[in-house]
Amino acid sequence: MSATHYEFKPYNVGRWVVWGCYALLLLIAPLVFTSNHSASLLGQIGIGIIACLSYNMLLGQGGMLSFGHAVYSGLGSFLAIHTLARIGGNFSGEGQPWNLPVSLVPLVGGLAGLFFAAVLGYVTTKRAGTIFAMITLGIGALVWNMSLMFPEFFGGEGGITSNRSVGGKVMGVDYALETHVYYLIAIYTWICTALMFAFTRTPLGRMLNAVRDNPQRVQFIGYSTRMVRYVSFVVAGFFAGIAGGLFALSFETVTAGEVFHAERSGAYLLFTFLGGATFFFGPIIGAVLMVLAVALLSELTKAWLLYLGLIFLLMVMYAPGGIASLIMMNLRVASFGKLRRLMGAYLALAGTALVMLAGIGSMIEMLYHLQLNAAALGPELKFMGMRLDTHRVDTWVGALFVTLTGVGLFELARRAYLHDWGTIQEEIEHEIKRREGI
Q1: Which of 98, 147, 253, 406 could form a disulfide with 154 if both were Cys (CB 3.0 to 4.6 A apart)?
Q2: For 325-361, how does the pLDDT look when each residue is reduced to its tens digit (9 = 90+)?
Q3: Is residue 139 predicted with pLDDT exceeding 90?
Q4: For the chain, what are the domain ranges?
């Protein structure tokens, strides 16, 4: 048996199983969540997956911290919505409506993202590190201000609106139905995910990792680090543009204030990091969290951005590799049959974290209530089944006591967990050496 054939069976077959499960999950998701609102949220998750994975080509794979990635998804959205208007004949000017399938409109957004990434990236990628980040921030501000100067193209504050159901049904597909739009997004999501994964396995993708880790050595062996960054930046812009085109198709309205705002670029950065920028599937987790946070958490509390900031701070302090790193660490422990020994520690961490969250959340909600709602709704509010009176000192003292208790217990549980974790890692290393006969 050849070495190549031996590698194919355990590795590639497993990979195909993962990709098959990924496709199956995209396929059955609207069958489980059947409402139109759920289909819309699922579609947003698919768009977020493409956008976060494209951003991770810069951050995780290339070490390029960008504060302006929304520029390319946003420009893709505007070109896509104008194309959709042309297809439907809903445009000002002369000429016949375009005979282009609506299902190809996201590709127009992708080509737009590629073009503008090629133009703006030529300047952006001349420098690396902090200067690169500042240039992307400046370009983001530049495009945002330009959108206000050219209302003919960007539509001013009202944006551009079109209709995705132009042309009627094609082979039974009607984009007036939210579920049909979701399946189009799912197809693009699966294909784009596969293509971006394939990019990581190309020589360019490997060289991008080398530029991130040791640019001096890459230059020493004769490669242009700037050209590697530039080409990768253009590829990332293409996929960001596809995400923008799908956004235009999903919402049928594009406004500059929504697609170019710095918050969108910040969301790509925040949730890609939370998901795990060092793992390919990390941004997928981050995209799911991004949509759930914006769509659901924002409905539960007005302080949701503050909670996200606190979560981000905790992840930076205790799990800088993101959620994906935690998953992979525990999968390694589980493969040696030792995960059960950590379950008690995880339960202790979860319980103490809930106590800490109850205390911190109580103080945050009381502060927001005092600032925003106390005059109209009175001093009392409900939080986690409790009735809190913001005008009573004992309520504040109790919240502070619960917070400090939770923090102390969490630190004790964390130290016990780290002790158990270190012991298990030593046992795993001994087991590996024993298997290798060292």
Answers
A1: 147
A2: 999 999 889 988 888 999 999 999 999 999 998 899 8
A3: yes
A4: 33-304, 336-436
What is the spatial distance between Cα 53 and Cα 236, in angstroms, rounded to a whole number? 9
Report the distance separating Cα 106 and Cα 100, nearest Å: 12
- Amino acid, res. 359: G
φ, ψ at 170 (rounded to 5°): -130, 110
170 beta partners: 173
What CA–CA distance (Å, rounded) separates 53 from 257?
Answer: 23
User: How far are the Cα atoms of 38, 187, 423, 426, 428 from residue 437, in angstroms, in the given order?
Assistant: 54, 48, 21, 16, 14
The burial class, CB within 10 Å (0-12 / 13-18 / 19+), for 239 is buried
Q: Which amino acid is at 330?
A: N
Question: How do residues 238-271 score in pLDDT, each as one tens digit?
Answer: 999 999 999 999 998 999 888 998 888 989 999 9
Q: How far is CA 126 from CA 67, 120, 123, in A?
A: 16, 11, 6
Cβ contacts of 363 within 8 Å, gap of 6 or more: 396, 399, 400, 403
Orientation of helix 225-251 relative to helix 70-88, angle to 10°: 40
Q: How far apart are the first and last CA of the chain?
A: 27
> Which backbone phi and psi does 319 adopt, to 5 degrees?
-145, 70
| Domain with residues 33-304, CATH architecture | Orthogonal Bundle (1.10)
